[in-house]
Specification:
The strands form three sheets. The chain has a four-stranded mixed β-sheet with strand order 1-2-4-3, covered by helices on one side. It has a four-stranded mixed β-sheet with strand order 5-6-8-7, with helices on one face. It has a three-stranded mixed β-sheet with strand order 9-11-10, with helices on one face. Helix 3 crosses helix 4 and helix 4 crosses helix 6. The relative contact order is 0.13. It has two domains: 63 residues, no CATH class; 111 residues, Zincin-like (2-Layer Sandwich). A hairpin with a 2-residue loop joins strand 5 and strand 6. The protein is built from six helices and eleven strands. By secondary structure, it is α/β, with parallel strands linked by helices.
């Protein structure tokens, strides 16, 4: 069951406050538009929240500004000459017509070839590319899960890939199932690995609390660098969010 956040208004800054079973307060600003979320212990006094938020106002505004200035991919028309990304690298799209099913392939380190039937629409081309990205991501994921299951001492029952508008990944701790954002196919492999680790750690700690951060620090000491790299990369035209 989802928890409806309280709204804390400080000047022109709106903060979502979520009360959870944690010991300390955790403040975060999320892309793409700089949504602000403050997780706090269940019985924290409202005045304490307000004073804490005021003390962090400079930090909040800095991060919100950064996200609003973050680069966004231009709208894709799936025509030859466009830039498309795969595993963190930039490729030039080359579109060709042929008789048969849509097909995507990579040539060397510079070109992505998209073969489509005559008269294929932008939507059809987008669907073909999306399914190719999905297939490639599903090739990457199993070895990462197997690697980190052993390191963390956890076991996933199921995993999947889907287009997600609000997160890079998610974990259902009861079902032991994780979902990964399809957009991760475009990002550097280390960023995908960071998200896999992040979601698997939820099988050790359900909440984003001090214990969760301690696990990240222990098992992936450079996780903040990978997170920042991921959040600084261009985001898709439709603003998938986080």
């Amino acid at each position: 069951m989802s928890i409806s956040p309280e709204i804390l208004q400080i000047a022109n800054v709106q903060i979502d406050v979520v009360r959870k079973d944690i010991k300390n307060m955790h403040l975060a600003v999320y892309p793409p538009h700089g949504k602000i979320r403050l997780a706090v212990p269940q019985n924290t006094d409202e005045e304490v929240l307000r004073l804490f938020a005021i003390s962090k106002l400079g930090w909040i505004k800095k991060h919100v500004k950064n996200f609003k200035q973050q680069a966004r991919e231009t709208k894709r028309d799936y025509v030859s000459g466009e830039s498309h990304f795969f595993q963190g690298k930039r490729y030039i799209l080359e579109v060709k017509q042929h008789d048969g099913y849509g097909k995507v392939s990579i040539s060397g380190t510079k070109k992505i070839h998209l073969k489509v039937s005559k008269g294929a629409t932008v939507e059809e081309k987008a669907r073909i590319m999306k399914e190719w990205y999905r297939k490639q991501l599903k090739i990457q994921i199993p070895s990462l899960i197997e690697k980190w299951e052993k390191i963390l001492g956890v076991k996933v029952n199921d995993w999947g890939v889907k287009q997600m508008k609000t997160k890079w990944g998610s974990c259902n701790t009861d079902a032991k199932r994780i979902w990964l954002n399809l957009e991760l196919a475009k990002k550097p492999p280390i960023c995908l690995e960071y998200i896999v680790v992040h979601e698997l750690i939820h099988l050790l700690e359900r909440n984003h609390n001090d214990n969760f951060i301690a696990y990240l620090d222990k098992f992936m000491p450079k996780w903040r660098m990978y997170r920042d790299e991921l959040n600084n990369l261009p985001i898709v035209h439709n603003d998938w969010g986080y």
